[in-house]
Amino acid sequence: MKILAIESSCDETSIAILDDTKVLSNVISSQYFHTQYGGVIPELASRAHLKSIAPIFFQSLEEAQITIEKIDAIAVTNQPGLLGSLIVGTNFAKGIALKYNLPIIPINHIEGHLYSGFIEDDSLQFPLISLVVSGGHTALFKVNSFTNYEIIGLTRDDAAGEAFDKIAKSLNLGYPGGPIIDKLAKIGNPNKYTFPRSMINSGDFDFSFSGLKTSFKTFISKNFPNGFNQEEIQDLAASVQSAIVDVLTFKSIQAAKQFKIKNIIVAGGVSANSQLKSEMQKVAHNLGMKAVFPSLKLSMDNAAMIGFLATKKIQEKGTSNFFDFTFTASANSLRSRKKT
User: Fold this and answer.
1) Helix (H) or strand (E) holding 113
2) I need a surface site. Which of 14, 116, 122, 142 has the fewest CB within 10 A?
3) pTM score, two decimals?
4) Are 8 and 107 members of one domain?
5) What's the pLDDT tens digit per position in 241-279?
6) Does residue 120 carry a pLDDT above 70?
């Protein structure tokens, strides 16, 4: 079964081709021009998807050394995300599926991240804990199978990636903030300043990063009225990153302990954070657990994870159940606590 998958939920246009679960190509085009605006501009993002999706389609086929006539099914992200961006991807996918009479599998973007750790590590076993952490989402899942999972924790306000971006903006570091803070934090002293670990002792698996963002802004306004030198920026970056990483690690490990689970997947853009990976894997190893982080190309928004999950859905239901073209794109984010 060869699947062509499309991902366009935010500011990455990606098309991948998989042979069952083997990735033959995974082309990603990132819209770096948003950096000048300090964040993603939805209208500009959708226009960029329109411009790049066809060339990426042909590039993906070329890299996979396959023709469209050899494709057996189409997969596409239809939610959640920026509505205009999603519409570009879903319409392109429907057009191909209709032209070549192929089944089409709509995939939830968050679910794609949820299972992305399996693409490079087939030794993972259910049940597992999955932390999806990005600019738009921070959520913990108890995952029982490829078709059954439960949301056990959500952010009550800002996502971790959003907090990184806003804190970086306070330091005049640019956008996106996460990679910049991570780089500076490697040089800085994480114990120089103390910032709140919000909800770390809340007794549940929910998150909150809005208070940290406010606390950080207040701190630098009070203590650095005339700005900061390079060393101070490095120490601030290291200290605030440690606060975010401590909460993400603690909650994930506590969830694994409570449900007596040995495997943890950490996915989404923030999973590329070097300190998060180091801390999570160290703590997990000391407790006899395994923490899996996808490679950089699979941690960012990408079509390979969409195609991988589509393969699992086809294996469960067959292709005959995926000729319904009435599904629509939706911007809706995580709402329900349970999914079966």
Assistant:
1) helix 109-114
2) 122
3) 0.92
4) yes
5) 999 999 999 999 999 999 999 999 999 999 999 999 999
6) yes
| Domain of 289, in residue numbers | 124-293
The CA distance from 130 to 264, in Å, is 6
The candidate with the shortest Cα–Cα distance to 239, out of 284, 210, 275, 206, is: 275
**Pick from 179, 171, 190, 168: nearest CA to 134:** 179
Give the separation between CA 33 and CA 184, rounded to whole angstroms.
Answer: 22
pLDDT above 70: residue 339: no
Residues 162 and 201 in one domain: yes
Measured in degrees and rounded to the nearest 5, phi and psi for residue 18 equal -120, 145
Q: Are residues 136 and 234 in the same domain?
A: yes
Task: Render the burial of 10-27: b for 16+ CB within 10 Å, e for the rest.
Answer: bbbbbbbbbbebebbbbb
Co-location of 149 and 265 in the same domain: yes
Does one domain contain both 155 and 279? yes
Q: Please provide the DSSP assignment of 227-283 as one string.
A: ---HHHHHHHHHHHHHHHHHHHHHHHHHHHHHTT--EEEEESGGGG-HHHHHHHHHH
Let me know if residue 119 belongs to a domain.
no
Give me the helix-helix angle, 160-170 and 210-223, nearest 10°.
10
